[in-house]
Design brief:
It is a single chain. The protein is mostly helical. It contains 4 helices and no strands. The protein has helices spanning 11-29, 35-44, 52-64, 66-73.
Length: 80
Amino acid sequence: MANVAADQLSKEQKDELLCTYAALILHDDGAEVTPQAMTNLIKAAGCIVESYWPMLMTKMIKTVGMEALIKMGSGGGGGG
């Protein structure tokens, strides 16, 4: 999604991205990542996501762990 402009993303991709950013913000702030906290943050940003997205994201975070998910998303540097 990094190579695609936000207005070119599907509704599902935008919802996933909003939830990802909300989870990262909450985690970085030291707050508990809950569906309600994510929804509140997304609404405060003037956005709306399908109600199942925050629940799915928090379930994944609780199952896998936020630190592990962050490490999965960070790619290695380019070779020389």
